[in-house]
């Protein structure tokens, strides 16, 4: 990072050199999130500068330079990591390159923000965590749904005991991106490139969300299923997993379309005996991006669904003439809502959650509060997913190994400043 007076006469700000690896949809979102930081969070005193982007597709590399505004573009991610002007790196490539690139970033001493799942399984995720720990670099992982104002509010209600003792949790991620049988066989459907299917792609978000809101999962039982066993082939680097191909060459789907799990949570101040049901599907008909969480306690309950991002459903108390749910619109008392909108019913969106994610990463990097999801949290999530996968194989309950550095076992932030 370098310090310098901005030409518009603003206060001194630290210039942060940004490197980007993979210039797809998520890479563009990371870029816009960095660009929003000085506007949305000026108190951080950081001004990200787009320095170097890499993508193996020439047109995407050119887009990074000519449209997004990166000073340099390359075909090889190693050039980004070797660039002395790059202070932080966003890793937004497909799952199968995450371990290689993240380990290389750590060894190059570059703090990194990486999308999930970090690895194609627990071994790859653990390898990245080990490299980050050895290098002492700050990390952040793309669990953007944590930043939804309603999610932050539910987390507070759990932590301060407002909902009483948590008895059960239900969380699902129902997506329809693969509901079309002629939907393309992208890399997401092949073990070599994606590892698992809905398990790693979608249930990883569910697992992270419930552990962030409620607490660590300690045991799991599950089943997996594949609904469409063949799909038309889509060449790597072309189209997306939303593409539909008529009369294409068919090839096998190699991973799961649907996953269901029963879980038990670790005992905590408000979670003794808490259990949960977790589910994810990429072939559901109806929901399109239906990540939802319902938390039930002895004194109340709360629920949220990403498809109604700006609404919290809340019930407090067990009786009375008006018992039942109240819909609370997101407002300035919830999370970082006030950074984006002036009052209730002014809706936030997906991209705003990436800005919050970027802020948490950069705040931790600058020595501030650590509220970001780290590689160690991702490792703990991967341990849960490993237990889920093992249970699907043998039909038994499997314990979840504990990652000491994961933040889930710590006291959640209650009443924290959202400045």
TrEMBL record:
Residue ranges of domain Gfo/Idh/MocA-like oxidoreductase N-terminal in the record: 17-143
Keyword set, alphabetical order: Oxidoreductase
Alphabetized InterPro entries for the sequence: Gfo/Idh/MocA-like_OxRdtase_N, Gfo/Idh/MocA_oxidrdct_glycsds, GFO_IDH_MocA-like_dom, NAD(P)-bd_dom_sf
Entry-linked Pfam families: GFO_IDH_MocA (PF01408), GFO_IDH_MocA_C3 (PF22725)
Domain of life (superkingdom): Bacteria
Ranges where the GFO/IDH/MocA-like oxidoreductase domain occurs: 152-302
Name this protein carries in UniProt: Gfo/Idh/MocA family protein
Lineage: Bacteria, Bacillati, Actinomycetota, Actinomycetes, Kitasatosporales
């Amino acid at each position: 990072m370098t310090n310098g007076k901005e030409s518009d006469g603003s206060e001194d700000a630290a210039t942060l050199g940004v490197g980007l690896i993979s210039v797809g949809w998520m890479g563009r979102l990371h870029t816009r999130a960095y660009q929003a930081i000085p506007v949305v969070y000026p108190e951080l005193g950081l001004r990200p500068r787009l320095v170097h982007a890499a993508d193996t597709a020439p047109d995407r590399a050119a887009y990074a330079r000519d449209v997004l505004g990166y000073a340099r573009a390359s075909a090889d991610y190693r050039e980004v990591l070797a660039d002395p002007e790059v202070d932080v790196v966003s890793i937004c490539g497909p799952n199968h390159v995450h371990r290689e690139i993240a380990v290389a970033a750590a060894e190059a001493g570059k703090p990194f923000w990486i999308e999930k799942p970090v690895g194609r399984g627990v071994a790859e995720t653990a390898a990245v965590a080990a490299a980050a720990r050895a290098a002492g670099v700050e990390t952040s992982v793309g669990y953007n749904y944590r930043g939804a104002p309603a999610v932050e509010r539910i987390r507070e209600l759990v932590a301060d005991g407002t909902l009483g003792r948590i008895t059960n949790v239900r969380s699902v991620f129902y997506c329809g991106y693969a509901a079309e049988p002629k939907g393309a066989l992208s890399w997401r459907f092949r073990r070599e490139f994606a590892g698992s299917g809905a398990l790693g792609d979608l249930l990883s978000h569910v697992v992270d969300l419930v552990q962030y809101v409620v607490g660590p999962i300690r045991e799991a039982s599950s089943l997996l299923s594949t609904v469409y066993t063949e799909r038309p082939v889509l060449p790597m680097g072309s189209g997306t997993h939303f593409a539909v191909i008529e009369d294409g060459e068919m090839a096998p789907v190699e991973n799961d379309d649907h996953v269901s799990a029963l879980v038990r949570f670790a005992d905590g101040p408000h979670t003794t005996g808490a259990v949960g049901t977790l589910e994810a599907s990429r072939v559901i008909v109806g929901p399109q991006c239906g990540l939802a969480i319902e938390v039930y306690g002895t004194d109340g309950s709360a629920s949220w669904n990403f498809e109604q991002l700006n609404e919290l459903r809340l019930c407090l108390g067990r009786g009375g003439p008006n018992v039942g749910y109240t819909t609370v619109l997101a407002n300035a008392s919830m999370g970082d809502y006030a950074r984006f909108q002036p009052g209730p019913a002014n809706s936030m969106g997906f991209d705003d959650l990436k800005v919050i994610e970027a802020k948490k990463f950069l705040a931790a990097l600058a020595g501030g509060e650590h509220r970001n999801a780290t590689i160690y949290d991702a490792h703990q999530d991967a341990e849960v997913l490993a237990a889920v996968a093992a249970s699907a194989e043998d039909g038994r309950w499997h314990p979840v190994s504990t990652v000491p550095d994961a933040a889930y076992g710590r006291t959640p932030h209650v009443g924290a400043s959202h400045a």
